[in-house]
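REVIEWER CHECKLIST
Item 1: Sequence provided? yes
Item 2: Single chain? yes
Item 3: Sequence as submitted:
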Amino acid sequence: MSEEYCSLSILNNRLIFIGGEEQLGKGKLQYKYNKKQGFFEIALTPGVISYIEGLYPNIQCDKTVQNYKNIFYDKFQLFLKYAKTKELDHTDNINIPIIDTKEINLMPHQYFAIHMNTLLSRVLCMDDMGLGKTYAAIYTALIKKQQGCRRCLIVCPNSTKTTVWVKEIEKITDVKYCLPEGGANKREQIILDFMKKNETDINYYFLIINYEIVCKHTNILKQFADYQMLILDEAHYVKTMSAKRSKTIARIRPCYKLGLTGTPLSNRPEDAFGVYEQFLPLIFNKNFGAFRDNFCKTESVTGFTKEGKEVTRKRISGYKNLNFLSSFSYMIGYRRTKTDTLCLPPKQRYEITVDMEYDQEAIYKEVANNLYSEIELIDEGTIVIQARGILSKLIKLSQIADGFVKDAHGQNFWLPNNSKIIELDNLLKHKVESLDNKIVIWCKFTEVFNQLMKRYQKYGATGINGSIKAKDRSGIIDNFQNNKQTKVFIGQINSCACGITLHSASHMVFYDKAMLSTSSISQAEDRCHRIGQFYPCKIYSLTAIDTIDERWNTIWKEKQEAIKAVLDGLDYEENNSEEDSFLDKVSQFLTKEDFLRLTSYERKKVKQ
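Item 4: Structure as written out by the authors:
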């Protein structure tokens, strides 16, 4: 097609190209042809614009394209300057509108974040945990309200609805929020009532809903947020494009979309696929196969299901072009670390190793040897097909290392003289009784949570696990933060490791880490290591010698190298549903050798 008929514009956060497909097809662009409208939709990036302008030097670009290029260039240059600085240069004319808020003090890096958030219509803030992303997001939403936005939908984990968002909104502004609770019909009626009030009073502005139920209210959420504002807290929750909640959120068409996550690649580099597609539509053309071919090394494996059916599957065995993948982050947002932006005290890590007692060791060895023998008989291809089931069996090893087992009736019972408990008792006696510190203890299993809650009532122990309702969590956290008699907080890591603030404690203990992702552990650590912390954070990990505790750490560190490569690229000069669970993800790239290492047992040390 002749250049005089070619044009480029922006619509719904996509580039709209009117012209011929022939030349586009010769390049490496991902695009979609809209038959109804007769144009091509392409991911909105400066690189794509430059590429098309190179193909058609005389192409007609409307004002939206030129404005986007200017804004993006300014954003990019400013971020290069401020990625590793703790103060603003006021000669750069970094201004944010004055809005009506309660008295709050924004730190320089938050001030700059608000400036960045308001530049583009879709932004992913990937700042480290503990940098005050929530404050900046609420302030940004209030600016958008002042500029004409009528409503703001906040989607967040259930654990942070009241403990973070309600608390921070009330601290910053008198603008009204809606927190729908109860059954589906009741929640929907609450939202409808709130929207009716919003028709005459735009101070009815924030709707807060959790990821776990977002897909149950697709139509009404679209009605609320279409062409308005959407905030996704812990945006890595939408990394799986096939998940219902991801599809629901993708169907919402806000004029402005802001994502917050301190762990943009929570488990693997391929997590970037879903998150990036949410904030830069068509960047991978919703084609995971193409994404995998570009950034993953694969191999075909053939194995058998439990039912004996032969299955051939592509298995990701490594990664490639990670520097190129990391460059996409420039297009959708920004990332800064606490080291670059804050003068926080350091983290100090201590590994406390314990020997299992004789009875505990005997039970562990028997279970480990049986699993080892079972895995030895399975070929590599079948391991890949059945990996999730095998990994689930390893949970029993982790439970035994923690000090409890299930009897023949499925009842949990604690083993006597549990070494981890003894070491934890000694640590609390020294840190809490002698030195009057507060301490946070993280664990995986409900049985461990319940045992520790009973055991440490003498320290005023409080805590949160999956059974604690969202509306009750804020009071529990406030009690730990402000009550001098409440010395111990116990958290079940998959239930409350995101979003909350526990910086009244500078000591924390991980009772167990096996079967946890690095992102979960980092999230938990940063409940204490964040703005407002004035003391070095001392982090203790209890590890049973030569058990899955030790071996998981070793294997998982090896698997993290690929993620580190992508996160390093972001350094411009770094309560899960079943469908989205960590174990489902990690099982896909553990090898037979990894499983054998996890189940092998040779006693290294004899208790004196």
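Item 5: Key structural point noted by reviewer: The radius of gyration is 26 Å.
Item 6: Recommendation: ____
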